[in-house]
């Protein structure tokens, strides 16, 4: 999954803590055997009612996919299941990065493997962004920094290997396969 | 380095160290060898596809074990032996797993297998889960297997592909969180109440980045099924894995199981397994102490597993956005009692609580009693083996006589993707592990509880402290 290394966009805010993977994509849509096209199920129960009609209180109604590619959400984003359908759905819906003060482990790992950037920031940065919906931000993978207009520049945790793979389009499976001899040695020991 | 000069290490570090193909460096994560990958129909199709796309084979089909559980119906087959799936896609997903496993030579326990079951129930029952192993599955409740002293955790589908192709994973070393639980449990209090209480204390994100080790006298005195219930819910406080050091209780459980070591291999394995424990003097990155003596039957009142109270306590007033939102969804009022709320559905099942101990506890409470008139009760054993054992003991007859439905094994209403779901607005008392909004069906309100509390609530049709019925009858 190749990535230009830079995301410049306005934010879209969901000021909710502990957004779990069942909210991001409900279990009923997991019978798919594909990874594509899951955007239509993203936050499904928040967008549609029981009959599949638009909900009037849909918090994503105002989302402008072309200009708001960065989701800002409350802490512990992506908690719950290991379904990789969650980052697949968010990407297909139009998000390239998510900013939160805490990410669930498996969600973070799944996201990085698909080019969706989990940007973990201190509480005050997250709060500022949640207080200013639509704010312009700039995320640079190479320096793992988030620039927030009027607030400053912040480093976010990104392991060097993921950054390297993301920006060079290097696939982690290829890296593992290159270690085949060592894996065989381990198996024989 | 000789054994004696090794620094003190934790159980986690011992298992981690044994599986390092390559240690981590400043630039690259560790390469960790995986002893066993468990597979099911939902999180594997895209991984097998990826292998096909690259022209790769599964490296070690002998280290894979597959089952069908999530999308499968829990209603019996029709007279012609045909199972009726909820949707054609559900059936297609199961068919695809059959094709993939056949092509790659992977052992799959389908409809005709006496072992088929929820992946985290089947693995231990078959003896595939063993101390000191690394075990992964595309499922966050893989932590269940940590009850045997294995390092077991959930992974995403891309990583399922990595393990299929290389039997390895790239991993950053997690932190360790020790949870010491001491003291004797009160009557009516089970492993489920203990872990709900722990999650309430640690918080839903409190274990993030960590592997938990549970220890202390409460854990030592638990049987394997209870220990699995505890480890199962580690992910609900954000931890990827939960572990318990193996002991005689572990070895006795495993002895003679189909995939456990036999003969001389058994003795050698046990000798090795005995070394898998945290050394005196070793420390955790963080330690939490829990007094188990005052834990009461516990239930969730909100929309995540950390929103927990003792069953007779009042629902918290809810002065923050998250609590207000949860109360609004659950249609509860802060400050009022949860006990006594009318219950529409009771679900006893899931990889948290669908084993023999759980079913026996529920049956003991429901024996010679009737399910409340307006309450639907589903009891779903975790596996074929459990189903047969329960039927041999006559537990199914107790359930059916009480007016409950006795189903075929599977995940069922735990995530309600197979068609077993409740109606919008229903209040469900469930022995599963997640009470997220809509998890058990659109608009469904879930209360997580122990099998005892679920059974008591089934009888009265209201959220009920099991002690109320146990003191009267048992
Ligand atoms: S029973 Fe529930 S939690 Fe367990 S594996 Fe099945 S769906 Fe997942």
By CATH, the architecture of chain A is named Alpha-Beta Barrel
Which CATH C-level class of chain A is it?
A: Alpha Beta
Mean pLDDT of chain B: 96
Give me the Rg of chain B, rounded.
Answer: 22 Å
Q: What sort of overall outline of chain A do the alpha carbons produce when their principal axes are compared?
A: globular
Strand order of the largest sheet of chain B: 5-4-3-6-7
| Portion in helices of chain B | 25-40%
CATH homologous superfamily heading of chain A:
Aconitase, domain 4
Largest sheet of chain A: 7 strands, mixed
Are there runs of chain B of 5+ residues with pLDDT below 50, and where?
A: none
Which small-molecule species are bound to the chains here? Answer: iron/sulfur cluster
Structural class of chain A: alpha/beta
Largest interface, and how many residues on either side? A-B, 51 and 64 residues
In whole angstroms, the N-to-C terminal distance of chain A is 34 Å
Q: How much of the residues of chain A is beta strand, in percent?
A: 15-25%
State Rg of chain A: 18 Å
> What number is the mean pLDDT of chain A?
94
- Which structural class fits the helix and strand makeup of chain B? alpha/beta
CATH fold-level topology of chain A = Aconitase, domain 4
